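In this section we walk through a basic example: taking a raw amino acid sequence and producing a predicted 3D structure, encoded as discrete structure tokens. The instruction is simple. Fold the sequence below.
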Amino acid sequence: MEEKIKLIWDFRGPAAQKTAEHHEIHLKDFLQMKKIDLQITGCEKQTDFHYTAFMVVEKSNMISLRDALKPHRGQIYKD
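The resulting token sequence is shown next.
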């Protein structure tokens, strides 16, 4: 089984939750448009004024997706 990477976008401020939720919509659209099978996305609350949107990708696709989508950071994804 191939290792998975979680690409993460950080959003801060009073509108962080709405912005992260909206960004996730764009991530889902991108996955559908590019016909990428692994479709794990989401939003997570870090604090009241810090939310993240994320997409999980296979390590072999990470560099091309990272370059196309410009996430703020990434980490190894554990199921």
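Looking at the output, two observations stand out. DSSP finds two helices and four strands in the chain. The chain has a mean pLDDT of 95. In the next section we compare this with other chains.
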